[in-house]
Amino acid sequence: MSARAIGGDPPLPLRPMREDDLDAVMAVERRAYPFPWTQGIFRDCLRAGYQAWLLHDGATLIGYGVLSLAADEAHVLNVCVDPSTQRRGHGRRLLRTLLRIARAQGAQRVFLEVRPSNPHAVALYHDEGFNEIGRRPRYYPAANGREDAIVMALELMPEPEIDATRDAMPETGSGPDPRTPPGAPAEPAR
User: What pLDDT, on the 0 to 100 scale, is given for residue 178?
Assistant: First the structure.
């Protein structure tokens, strides 16, 4: 996986989540959400074979994403970044990783739910091309009862054909190369 870092810092590595990561995952989940997933939910996702990826800076977990795939659809189940490292592009990187995986696995559309009370996440999803397609009433637990979920969807377009002009084009610095599969080393600059 390659990504261009903001401010010249090297990109943080991504790797698949494992069961032995769940204590660190739960620590981030509890810091980020007033109503966190349980460790059992994460364990069930891993055992079901869902795509689950960690973003880390070596010893410290920065964030993670979980994606389910079935037929030609994908569902973003969780994208979470530790509150101490939010607003630095980590959530976008995790989301784009999940979208690349969905596309590579043949998904034609991706769905997700998001709290209306999370305007930064709503803005990120809109910015990445998701559209609101409905609401799920009283979907999330909330301090004063329940909160609706905004249901969003993204139609995935096929990957563009790779052609000989790619090597002749300058780097734009606009983000990760969508042709690089998750976990692959960054391609050296030419």
Answer: 42
* Residues 6+ away with beta carbon under 8 Å from 84: 31
**Residue 188 counted as domain residue:** no
Give yes or no: 140 in active site. no
Predicted pLDDT of residue 159: 67
138 lies in a domain?
yes
Q: What is the pLDDT of residue 160?
A: 66
Residue of 113, 128, 132, 139 marked catalytic: 113
Domain contains 63: yes
| Contact by Cβ (8 Å): 6, 60 | no
- Across the range 154-179, mean pLDDT stands at 53
Say how many C-beta atoms besides its own lie within 10 A of residue 78's C-beta.
23
Among 75, 66, 72, CA closest to 41: 66
